[in-house]
Write a structure and sequence with these properties.
Layout: H1 15-71, H2 87-94, H3 96-127, H4 133-141, H5 148-158, H6 164-171, H7 186-210, H8 215-223, H9 228-239, H10 241-257, H11 260-266, H12 278-288, H13 292-323
């Protein structure tokens, strides 16, 4: 009850709204801190999640690579640990076996289109639903699950001089072929076996690429009466450019790093060193000749080759992205 004679308490007009607005602003300031912390955590989350993988790569891949490159500039035997500069690399340049191995890398590059075209064509036939396409899908992939040692042992029996392949050639009036003993054809034979054993993975990649193909383009080509060859050349290949580029690069990497098992079982680098590849040369120098520093130099050269292939892959994918 107001005291008599005292002036009445007067509240300014709109003070209630002012107090409410002030409270709202304070609440917004208080709540603004929470989204900021959340946004920071959201930005850091990818780095935290990737950190273990990066650490594993650095410890188990990059650091040993640096040690190997450093070791390649040291000597072997009595000069073990002694810096020799470019001595190991100069020795590699003068070694006919290593030059043969690099020459075989060039052969792999020439045969690469064949290694890519085979799974590409087979995937095309499966996508076009030739009779028995489901059976072919599993049959084509089956060799990919076999060990290279098993594959090499099987083809050693089949391609032997008295093996069933030469027996079949004799039945049609052709003379026997020394598939693994002739220096001029042994490398082609091993590469052919490798393609047979590994094209199943490329087939799966091509089938995944076909899942992105616009079926209406094929329908339009059929309506126009285009032949199978024109459909492949003008519709399928342009639509699967990225997939083809990816298969080219991964197939080349596989040829450079995954043929040791076949070479060891089928030819042991022979005849006359004609089937040497850099990875087999590295094993031979490290394990058989006890030349770890020279093997490290060869590994460094192989790494440079692989780096060039990787950069080529990035360049091709970027170019394909710009075209899209």
């Amino acid at each position: 009850m107001p005291v008599k004679g005292s002036p009445p308490s007067v509240r300014p007009a709109g003070s209630g709204r002012t107090d409410a607005a002030t409270t709202e602003r304070r609440g917004r300031r208080g709540n603004a801190r929470t989204p900021t912390r959340g946004a920071l955590a959201e930005r850091l989350a990818p780095y935290v999640l990737v950190a273990p993988a990066v650490l594993i790569i650095v410890v188990l891949r990059l650091w040993p690579l640096v040690l190997g490159v450093n070791f390649s500039f040291t000597g072997d035997g009595e000069l073990n640990g002694t810096p020799v500069g470019l001595g190991n690399y100069l020795e590699l340049a003068d070694d006919p076996l290593f030059r043969t191995a690099l020459g075989n890398v060039g052969l792999l590059v020439l045969l690469l289109p064949v290694a890519v075209a085979i799974p590409g064509l087979l995937a095309t036939f499966i996508y076009l639903r030739v009779p028995g396409n489901r059976v072919y899908r599993s049959v084509y992939f089956f060799p990919a699950v076999l060990s290279p040692v098993i594959v090499g042992a099987i083809f050693n029996l089949m391609l032997g001089y008295d093996g069933p392949v030469n027996a079949a050639l004799g039945a049609i009036g052709l003379g026997p072929v020394d598939w693994l003993g002739d220096p001029d054809i042994a490398m082609f034979t091993v590469v052919g076996v490798h393609i047979w054993a590994t094209f199943g993975m490329s087939l799966v990649v091509f089938l995944a690429g076909f899942s992105t193909l616009d079926a209406s383009l094929l329908d339009a080509a059929r309506v126009d009466g285009a032949s199978l060859g024109r459909v492949i050349w003008h519709v399928i290949i342009p639509s699967l450019t990225r997939t083809i580029q990816f298969v080219f690069v991964t197939t080349m990497i596989g040829m450079l790093t995954s043929m040791f098992g076949l070479l060891f079982v089928m030819t042991s680098g022979g005849p006359e060193g004609s089937t040497y590849l850099p990875e087999y040369y590295i094993w031979h120098e490290q394990g058989q000749m006890n030349r770890p520093a020279l093997a490290s130099a060869a590994s460094t050269v192989l790494f440079v080759v692989m780096l060039v292939v990787g950069l080529l892959q990035i360049s091709l994918l970027r170019r394909a992205g710009r075209q899209d």
